[in-house]
Amino acid sequence: MAEEKILELSHISKSFGDSVILKDISFDVEKGGVISIIGSSGSGKSTLLRCINRLEEIDGGEILFRGSPIPVSGKALSRYRAKVVMVFQQFNLFNNMDLLTNCSIGAVKVLGISEADARRTAMENLEKVGMAPFARYRPANISGGQKQRAAIARALTMSPDVLLFDEPTSALDPQMVGEVLSVMKDLADSGLTMIVVTHEMAFARDVSDEVIFMDGGVIEEAGSPHKIFSDPEKERTREFLSRFLNG
Amino acid sequence: MPDSFWQWVVFILNEYGGLFLTGLKNTMMIAVLSTVFGFLIGLLVASLRSIKVSRHEGAVKRICAKLLDILLAVYVEVFRGTPMIVQAMVIYYGLFRNVDIGKMTAAVFIVSINTGSYMAEIIRGGILSVDKSQEEGAYSIGMTHSQALRYVILPQAIRNVMPSIGNEFVVNIKDSSVLSVISVFELFFAGKSASGTYLRYFEVNFIIAVIYLIVTYTVTRGMRLIEKRLEGPGVVTITGSQSDSRSVITVRED
């Protein structure tokens, strides 16, 4: 596989006031790669993802997108965000629109695609996540799992280069986790580049190409799923995994 | 000459009914136009004040944004912090001293700019009432601040503050009466003119009060209907349950 780097993070740091959230984070994201970021709550995983979508500003270090630093403001930032789209824990669907409009509005207003084309693409993506029958529903009238699948369809309609998932199943009832994970697995199989912050260890192990374990704002260990889950080097990784895998 | 209260009321209605109707027509015109313009001013002010200029923007842009914000804050505070009757005098005899723009235009101008300051705060509150996740959802797919406002935040914010906007309309129907100080021929001024001839202040103002009450009550009811309409058709569909994510329950509200 040709190794084309889409995102390169080097020495990222981030603090909120006096508390340091991220320290010296570096890793690369290759085209088509699926990276899972695991770690306990408060380890900085979500903040890292928010920094990549630039919902948060980084204090130090550099993020390169296709070789150039990511824009800090204006139209350029908009174009970047449309390429590296975020899927949230709380779905963040627009409450004032039906699902079809939720999906198409970004394509129309941000990418400048015609209304008809955007709606067609949106419908295809809703179809892909099994939400086409609900295209005319508003977010208030569907379940959490359905909301998250629709939110994924919204992200897909931007035709992104990278999808960022911020604990996409953490707000869901256990029965609904499976439907979302299976959509994500299909996307991974289709070759989409993904960074997934997750507590779903089975997903991290079976679907991702690389697993990053974060602890206290630093990358404690990174490697292939096999290495992290079967043969972790660091004591902290082992502790974390044993707590998770043995309940 | 009539000699009881009710006889006077009937007599005055016969004599001045047309005058009151003209006054009412002007009152309603001022109230409707000023509420619409005030709403637009409030929308603009609240939108401008919601802009957060990134520290990556140039110094000039940042200073301009700060100045604009201060200017808008002063506007809001001044017009909310002084009585409209005083604003009417200052604007009419000060700002429009040398301009003949007509009494009605001046009236609409005064009430609009006054309403705008209240609307700005009402809509600002509405914007704050919309969950942050909506804004972030919009940013995350690349919308700019103005796109996020226009398509996502304001539609929800305005719906949330619809009762307060309706309230401003009712307030304007009543408070436009202070424009009588600059001799605008609205309902209260019509009453003032009518009571002069026979010096029947009580009877005339009783009639005027009843007219105000009928109009404001009707408007309040109407606004309630519009709010209901905005809340949706009264049909709630709940899909997915704990046991089956494909189940559908439809609840119809009567």
Kindly describe this structure.
- The complex is a heterodimer of chains A (247) and B (254).
- By secondary structure, chain A is an alpha/beta fold.
- Helices cover 39% and strands 26% of the residues of chain A.
- Chain A is built from nine helices and ten strands.
- Chain A has helices at 45-52, 74-83, 99-109, 115-128, 144-157, 174-189, 201-207, 225-230, 235-245, and strands spanning 5-16, 19-30, 34-38, 60-65, 68-69, 84-87, 162-166, 193-197, 210-215, 218-223.
- In chain A, helix 4 (115-128) crosses helix 5 (144-157) and helix 5 runs parallel beside helix 6.
- The radius of gyration of chain A is 18 Å and the shape is globular.
- Chain A starts with a strand and ends with a helix.
- The model of chain A has no long low-confidence stretch (mean pLDDT 94).
- Chain B starts with a helix and ends with a strand.
- Chain B has helices at residues 5-49, 59-81, 84-95, 103-129, 132-140, 145-160, 162-175, 187-198, 201-230; strands spanning 235-239, 248-252.
- In chain B, strand 1 and strand 2 (248-252) form a beta hairpin.
- In chain B, helix 1 crosses helix 9.
- A two-stranded antiparallel sheet of chain B has the order 1-2.
- At the A-B interface, helix 2, helix 3, helix 5 and helix 6 of A face helix 5, helix 6 and strand 1 of B.
